[in-house]
Structure formats: structure tokens, C-alpha cells
Amino acid sequence: MESRIRDTSLLKSQCYVNGEWIAASSGQRFAVENPSTLAEVSKCPEFDAADTESAVVAAHEAFKTFRHTPARERSRMLRRWHDLMIEHIDDLATILTLENGKPLADAKTEVKYAASFYEWFSEEAPRIYGDTIQASHPSCRITTYKEPIGVCGLIAPWNFPAAMITRKVGPALAAGCTVVVKAPAEAPLSALALAELAHRAGIPKGVVNVITALDNTITVGEVLTTNPIIKKVSFTGSTPVGKLLMKQSSSTLKKLSLELGGNAPFIVFEDADLDCAIRGLIACKFRLSGQTCVCANRVLVQRKVYDKFLELLVDTVKTFKIGDGFAEDTTHGPLIHGRAVQKVKEHVEDAVSKGARVLHGGRPHSQGPNFFEITVLADMTREMRVAQEETFGPIAAIFPFDTEEGAIELANDTNVGLAGYFFSKDSSRCWRVAEALEVGMVGVNVGAISDPSAPFGGVKQSGFGREGSKYGVGEYVVTKMVMTGI
């Protein structure tokens, strides 16, 4: 396993706190498995509440000085971190594939994307501006300052274990905050490798702290959400967990940004370029075998082009190759664990029992217990579980519709609203539908919407706050007003 990694010092088995690599005080560790082979990749420390508190204290001490670090210096730190990620992209991608299972080419793409957030926010750091405001009384002057909010607790998911960390850490450091990162238990090694590169980049001790836990995940989360030193919590994950963290954070009124579950509609109108729509759906639906929060969960196709779209989709899906992420011909890897496979299986069985047709796949794959066939289901209805639940797996569930109004009504019939997509050549329709969809992000004739310059986030029960873009830093600053009499 380690033979795949050129710089084996990137493969860490300890947590990074206050500039040092440490074990859990209890000595306990948990295993990290490759979801493709079920082979053990490494072991990581099982941090508990006391261990987490020590990381919070380290971040607090570091904040006292780091907040005063000149913006240009913070910018240079982030840029050095970015450059080191690009320099070690092959090893970082290998580590990511080992713990996450995604094909190596996809892992390299993620590492580049992850590094781009450090590049972006290195450029934003010197541009965190305040304002001068006309006061009502002529003898007063009003000025506003943007100040770092303080120590931030960042809780990252396993599906993009590099990019979802850099998208949070980048703006936090740009603003002058310090961080405690809770790495995902399923895929913690990418986070620890990033910590090693932070150390090499010369980021001061205590500014970036990365901790791990499996059985104690709930305990660690409670520390991050209730400790009064932590002023901000950012979480990417499921809506139920987000609600719990929000409730816990209310005890100290922390600032929050929550990027939660989705149920993305993908609408294909009869005037769409079908080849373009198929490419968009493949990019949107089947990336990481459907385990992304913005992937299409419900594919709505206008009846006039319904049969043709199904034909094109099945022909394309038949070319996919499921397998281990390191195999050169693999296009799609495993699901993260057996529970994910079981959920996909239940969604297929529920749909079929209520009248759906299986056009391709529909069963667990012979490659191993964490694999499921790329699946296309036709004739879906809103009574099926896929219509209201996020599958997080490789199912393209196709719903027919007749009118634009009907498509919008069906698309919005969910309590979440992260992303939505549609394909049409009618420019007027594009404006109408984009404005009508109750989501935080819309892709018009495009299936991939992630970009460091684009604000990422949702509405309804998909959460609030935005990551990336010029708005991303705003989540980590507070506005101070100063009124001066003259």
C-alpha cells in the first residue's frame, strides 16, 4: 500500500495539534479501510472530549497573534500551501483513492480543485475591506472594519475529504482565524496529509489543528459546538446532523454555515440538446458513483423526448467500468460502506414495487460488498422514496413530465434546495426556470457547477451560508462599527 506513495511522510497516523503530531490521550485508535478492497490502510487516533479541548485551546492561543498577521503574509502562507499540494498531487490523490475509493483520475481532479481554494483565498486575503459611511450628524464619522471571528470548528465530510476541508480552511485563514478541523472518520488521511503540508508551508503552530475520531465523533462534535472559545462552526453533511449541531451551537450562539443534504432536480426540456444533456447528467449524477450532495437525484424529462433520452442514457451507461480506483479502466468505484449499498438497494426495490422499470443495473455488483451497479430507472413517480430522499448512490431515476409548470412544481416538491439543473435552448425559458427553482445553485445547460469563484450553498433545509467565491470570507469575519466625533 505504502509503495504507491512516493513521499510516505504524507501518510500520517497521528493528529496534528499545536504544530505537533500526537496520539489520543487514551492511546486508542481506529482502522481506516479501503472501501474497494476492505484492506486496512492505516489507523488514526480516537480523540475524546479532553483531546479536542486541548486542540481548541491551542487554536485559541494561536489566534491571539495570528489575527494580527498582515494580510499579505496570510496570503503567502496559503499560496505556499497551494503550491505544495500541486507538487505532491500524485501522492495526495493516491491517499485519497486508498481511503475513499474514487478512481485515481477523479482523485487527482479533486486535489487540484482542493488546492484552487487556497489559491483563490490567498488572493482574497488582502481584499477584506471595510467601509466609510455618512453619519446622520455632521460632527461624526462612521467606519467599519472586518475582523476575524475567532477560533473556528470545521467538520468535513468523507466524499470530498480534501476539497471540503480547503474550502473551509482557506477563507478562515485568509480572514485571520485559527481552526480545529474534525476529519471525516471514513476518510481522515487526506486531512492529515494536508496538515503535514501546512506544517511544511510554515503556517504557525496552533493555527491549523486536525483531529480524528470514529466512536467519539458525537462527543467531539459536541465539544466544537458548545465550547465558548469556538466562535464559528462550519459543517458539511446530512440535514439531520446539521440540525443537531445547530441546536447544540445555540448554547453559545455560534455563527454557523451549514451545507446539508440535497435532492437535486435535473430537468430536460423537449427543446434541449439531448447529447449535451446526457453529458451534463453523466458529470452530475455519476461522479463518485452518485455520492455527492449536488448530484442529480431526480431526472425530469419532457415526454416528447423521454424515450430518446432513455435510449441515449442507457447506451452511455453501458460503457462504464466499475472497479478498484487504481485500475486504469475503472470509471466508477465503490460506495463508501455497506450501509450506503443497502440504501441504494432499498431505493431500487421501492421504485420497482411501485411501477418503475429497471433499464440497466439495479443490483449489487460482483466486484465486492461495497459496489452497486450503475442503474437507470424509468417511469418514476413522486410516491417513490427517491422522489423525497437523497439516494447518494449510482441511480439515475427518470421522471416523465408534460409541461414547464409541472416540471417546476415537481422539482420544488421537496424540503431541501441545494442545487438544480435544467437543459433548454429557449433563452426566455432559461431565465424563467432559473428564477423559479427553489435552490441555492442552478446549472443551466451545464452539469458541473463547482468552482472556487462560485458561491456554494443552499436554501430551505439544505442549510445556509456560502463557501467559495468572494462571499466565502464573509462567513469568517464580523463587522465592527466605529463612530468618531470630530
Account of the 3D structure:
- This protein is α/β, with parallel strands linked by helices and 486 residues long.
- The chain folds into two domains: 2-260 and 462-485, Aldehyde Dehydrogenase, Chain A, domain 1 (3-Layer(aba) Sandwich), CATH 3.40.605; 264-444, Aldehyde Dehydrogenase, Chain A, domain 2.
- 37% of the residues lie in helices and 22% in strands.
- It contains 14 helices and 22 strands.
- It has helices at residues 49-66, 71-87, 89-100, 104-124, 163-175, 189-200, 217-226, 239-249, 274-285, 303-317, 338-353, 385-388, 404-411, 427-436; strands at 15-17, 20-22, 29-33, 40-45, 132-133, 140-148, 151-155, 178-182, 208-211, 230-236, 255-259, 264-268, 296-302, 357-360, 375-378, 395-401, 416-417, 419-423, 441-444, 459-460, 463-464, 477-485.
- The strands form six sheets. It has a seven-stranded mixed sheet with strand order 14-15-16-13-12-18-19, with helices on both faces. Strands 9-8-7-10-11-21 form a six-stranded mixed sheet, sandwiched between helices.
- Helix 3 (89-100) crosses helix 4 (104-124) and helix 7 crosses helix 8.
- The model has no long low-confidence stretch (mean pLDDT 97).
Strand content: 15-25%
State the separation between the terminal residues, measured CA to CA.
69 Å
Mass-distribution shape = globular
**Number of helical regions:** 14
Q: How much is the radius of gyration in Å? A: 23 Å
| The first-level CATH class name of the largest domain | Alpha Beta
Integer count of domains: 2
Structural class: alpha/beta
Biggest sheet details: 7 strands, mixed
Q: Quickly give the CATH architecture of the largest domain.
A: 3-Layer(aba) Sandwich
CATH topology of the largest domain: Aldehyde Dehydrogenase, Chain A, domain 1
- DSSP strand count: 22
